[in-house]
Amino acid sequence: MRVQDLNWEGVEAYLRRDDRAVLPLGCTEQHARLSLATDSLLAERVSVEAADPLGIPVFPALPYGITPTFTAYPGTVSLRVSTYLALLDDLLSGLHAQGFRRLLIVNGHGGNSPGQGWLGEWLARHPDARVQWHNWWNAPRTWAAVQATDPLASHASWMENFPWTRLEDVSVSAERKPVVDLARMRQLPPAEVRALLGDGNFGGLPQRPDAEMEAIWREAVRETRDLLEGGWAP
């Protein structure tokens, strides 16, 4: 259940019987012909579909992340690492203070990975809490489903092209783009990254059949739900 569909009394009543919650992490950055909010849309949707049958609240996705590489693309917004970690600290500490003790972070953006490394520091200060960091798109079962469908899958390619990340009246080509040299790209400033990438797709087809995407999505939802049900350390 989405927190936006509750009031404070509903959350208070929930905390009398359970201490789990989901915090999706997204980003606002270029995704070629897809929505700039792709990471946020996917992280929140997989969280809601996984948590809804269990009655676990899902907080709104954090819509900004760490993405300095793409700042030459208009609409991309990047936070400094120090800002991001401070923001995560405030969010997790605030939820802990209210009584949440088991928190599933569903991350939708690879650039947010400094938060995963920092998480141990927060847990050391909150030993009664349990937090799982779940990169939903490359978790073992979901990534296996992606690879079984098409091993050439990357940022802004078909693997992020769902009906809910597409934009109306924006067409995509059928061209299978060669994989960009990531080692080279990581050495470049934003303007040169844009010149190298063009539309922003790292490589692969821009779109695959919806039936294939639905199968991958079902696996992602199941894998996320399994963490909510049984992924907690004693």
UniProtKB/TrEMBL annotation:
Keywords: Hydrolase, Metal-binding, Zinc. SUPFAM superfamilies: Creatininase. It holds the Pfam family Creatininase. InterPro entries: Creatininase-like_sf, Creatininase/forma_Hydrolase. Its cofactor is Zn(2+). It comes from the Bacteria. Belongs to the creatininase superfamily. PANTHER family: 2-AMINO-5-FORMYLAMINO-6-RIBOSYLAMINOPYRIMIDIN-4(3H)-ONE 5'-MONOPHOSPHATE DEFORMYLASE, 3-DEHYDRO-SCYLLO-INOSOSE HYDROLASE. This is Creatininase family protein. It comes from Deinococcus rhizophilus.
